[in-house]
Amino acid sequence: MDLFNESFNDSFLPLSCRRAVLTLLPKKGDLQEIKNWRPVSLLCTDYKLLSRALSSRLRKVMDQVVDRTQTYCVPGRSIVDNVSLIRDILEVSGSLGLDTGLVSLDQEKAFDRVEHRYLWKVLERFGLSPGFIAKIKASTTETLTEVLWNVLEVL
């Protein structure tokens, strides 16, 4: 814990906590096709513990800062509630003879598209402390990913 506290005072984590090793795990199918491999990032235990601690703290306030219509990954809420609401709206609309449609959008790699400066401002507006935001910044900036290649040849 001293390592994390000291690192956070400097707003910087050691390289071991910012480094991931990317490897590929085989899925079913022809392994000559890249789509049949799943990328997995291996992280050090220290970083996992830190990440879990930050996540646990954030989870305590999520229901206060995330709109009630957002149900995924918020403790005490279930995505099933929104699915049921959609089903009910379609059913009532149909019984009233209303033409109804549904558009579902899912942005691929949504987190990768988030502008971090904007994210920090949003966290500020939600009332998170500058110290907590600094901890999140320290755990997500200047990261390094190394690709483990030809693992089967090494083994």
Description:
It holds the Pfam family RVT_1. InterPro entries: DNA/RNA_pol_sf (IPR043502), RT_dom (IPR000477). This is 149 kDa protein. Residues 6-155 form the Reverse transcriptase domain. The chain is of the alpha+beta class and 155 residues long. The protein has a domain at 2-61 and 128-154. The chain has eight helices and three strands; from the N terminus they run H-H-E-E-H-H-H-H-H-E-H. It has helices spanning 2-9, 15-18, 45-59, 62-65, 79-95, 116-125, 130-140, 151-154; strands at 19-26, 37-43, 144-147. A three-stranded mixed beta sheet has the order 2-1-3. Helix 3 packs antiparallel against helix 7. The longest helix has 17 residues, at 79-95. The radius of gyration is 21 Å and the shape is flat. It starts with a helix and ends with a helix. The mean pLDDT is 84.
State which percent range the strand residues make up. Answer: 5-15%
Oligomeric state, counting identical vs distinct chains: single chain
Name the helix and strand elements from N-terminus to C-terminus, one letter apiece.
Answer: HHEEHHHHHEH
**Radius of gyration, CA atoms, in whole angstroms:** 21 Å
Structural class: alpha+beta
Please give the largest β-sheet: 3 strands, mixed
Number of helices: 8
Number of DSSP strands? 3
- The termini sit apart by 35 Å
Q: Helix share of residues? A: 40-55%
Low-confidence stretches: none
- Global shape: flat
